[in-house]
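S.,

As promised, the D-mannonic acid run. Input:
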Amino acid sequence: MNAAATDADTEPGAPPPAPTAAPRPAALPRLHPSNLAGLPPEVARPRYERNELRPGIVHLGLGSFARAFLGAYNETAIHAGGEPHFGIVGVSLRSPAVRDALAPQAGLYTLAERDADEEGRPRQRLRVIGNLVGQIVGPEDPRGVLEAIAAPATRIVSLTVTEKGYALDPASGRLREEQPDIAHDLRVGTPLLGSPKSTIGTLVFGLELRRVRGMPPVTLLSLDNLPHNGRTLQSLVLAFARRSHEALADWIEARCTFPCSMVDRIVPATTDADRDNVAAALGRFDAWPVPAEPYCHWVVEDRFAAGRPDWHLAGARLVADATPWEQLKLRAVNGSHSAVAYLGAMAGWKTVHEAIAQPEMRRFVQAMLAEEVAPTLPPLPGLDFGRYVQGLLQRFGNPALAHRLQQIAMDGSHKLPQRLLATIEQRLAAGLPIARLALAVAGWMHYLRGIDEWGRPYVIDDPQAAALAAARAEAEREPTLHDRVAAFTHFAPVFGDLAGHATLVDALTRALASLQSTGVRFSLARWASVE
Ligand code: CS2
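Predicted complex:
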């Protein structure tokens, strides 16, 4: 199968649809409810009546993360005796690829939880997941998506549409009304006059149908790596709705809820090798299995407008305020992931596993987390940060996951603000040093040149790629590296109020000079031990 057919194909802004039909090993039957009974005994499978599941959740963005995270928690909760009213209707917002792969399997797919045993030998636990009860492809059936959101049975509308799917201006926190899909949907204005193209427009139009039909409210649940993801989603939805009409905005504000959540599970894109491996283990062909680490962690605010599945039975932590967890996750897990991705890709390493195995990288990440990230985090009773970091390094070192650095490097302009720059801003305000965080940001700036230390070119996969290239070209006109860096920090979507900040510009200049002249490995070693 075409290697480009990753989960990203289902997300907004993703490349054009990739070919969908994976060549199927001739001898193997397709994974299907009719042949579950013959699976090897060690493969977990639905042990409940699938026909009794009711579609209570509409999920937008049916990529690998949603299937490995929401689908897995939901499955465990159902097995643990949770009520069967929360089957998932998955909505692909761009491409039919996932639907084409899973429809012949009646929505079944395999989750391959992978790590290594004590001797370092890769191992996996296979689980066939059964709670995906329906699929809709937005561009084919936009009305169907709105009807699903408006359906009487729907109680939760959840989202994994990646950072860029929200049309959020990260620096100001506002809806980007000029973004073409949003501008289109604002012009259309109401579901009576046409179909939406953007995620936020889709939500608002669906909610409008609910409201005019007198349906009960729903919970809107963001599962993306955004700061205050629930509150952020709420303010974007309300900003859009207020532009349509006040009564709708008031109804949403008064009746619907938007819990914040912290989601954590590493889910690399599926490769053909994964398909072959899973097929061999199942004795069935699954066109789109999902590999993931065994670890998963979900903290979600318990504010649901119309009930929720018994996700706590599956280990989800239901809390009043998810903020401290979310900051820990975004700054420690995602912040170091991005640092490893940009610096590692420039050094020519391919996967997180390979990059974190380099002693310089490991020491650098440890130092960045302990010295610069930890002091900015709110207290979390019972959390031993040192152990958390050790666990994280072990997760990054998982030899059974080929998590490509280029996958994490995608969409940097939408990731850096909450992963690295918020931490920098907080430290600068307190007069604290930022050298290591600055090396990570400089790693991204260095990466934007599009060619690694071995002279190998790659594509900058970022919705702002053209604007970033223009900003770089503009900065290049400045006479010194310091001036060039200063000019580049005026790229507002990423740096916001930090534009031209003297201490930041100094730190970035030192880091970039070192990366350019001595390379990644040497810079990592030096910055790991800097005072
Ligand atoms: C990664 C995340 O691709 C990325 O940007 O940093 O997807 C990361 O793997 C997850 O957030 C881990 O929970």
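Residues 160 and 223 are 5 Å apart (CA to CA). The chain has two domains: 42-319, 324-528.

- D.
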